[in-house]
Please model this.
Amino acid sequence: MKRDALSRLCGLLLAAAALSWQAAALGQADYAREKRWAAEITPSILLGDAVYLELKSGHKFLAIYTPSPKAAAGVITVHGIGVHPDHGLINPLRSELAEQGYTTLSVQMPVLAAEARGDDYPPLFPEAAERLQAAIAFLRAKGLKRIAIVSHSMGSRMTNDFLSRVAEHGVNAWVAVGLSGEFTRPESFRAPVLDLYGEKDLPAVLDNAAKRAAAIKAVRGSGQVQVAGADHFFTGVRGELVRQVKLFLDARLK
Model:
């Protein structure tokens, strides 16, 4: 009996230790997963060049740089949860905006393990902010004087945190695509914001649309657009997504 009780106790302690390790790991980006993404997508990039930006820690992360001839403005595209900088709707955004006069830089944001949920990501927001700062510095070094961010889903949450906490960020416009919930600290926004979402978007996006519209009403040049028939990933209507983004950027960056 004592041996059985001891075995059960050891099992419980091991399980607790495993849960503790997992919780701690969720606070750190999964660099191995990033490396796998990079190895998978870089050989198939059809438009743009793979470049690597560096964090203060020395970690280098992938970005896809697509210069546009005579571009006066740059656009940083920011993907959603747990994916890569050429995934889904990010590909047409970064590619087509480059073809229409904007230099684009699509950035690998920090990711967690595939099973991680959105609520696990806020501990990564400081690193996300550093990546965005590195992306801005990269485009500035290329001579681009005006810079916008176009972000999707979790990328919009990361961008919201960055813009609300970093006073001198150098961003001239922001398009938040499919932002779940409400804007965080909108009173700190200095650049105009477009809140862009789909008619058939996620409940967390749709249910808070009115609150987001009210939050950015006082931010000059801001607005909200709902795209008819679009889901969270703008399946089948990505041409309209790019069109709405370009309309907003043209009016504020050119």
Observations:
- The radius of gyration is 20 Å.
- The helical segments are 2-25, 31-41, 90-99, 125-141, 154-165, 203-206, 209-215, 238-253.
- The chain has one domain: 30-253.
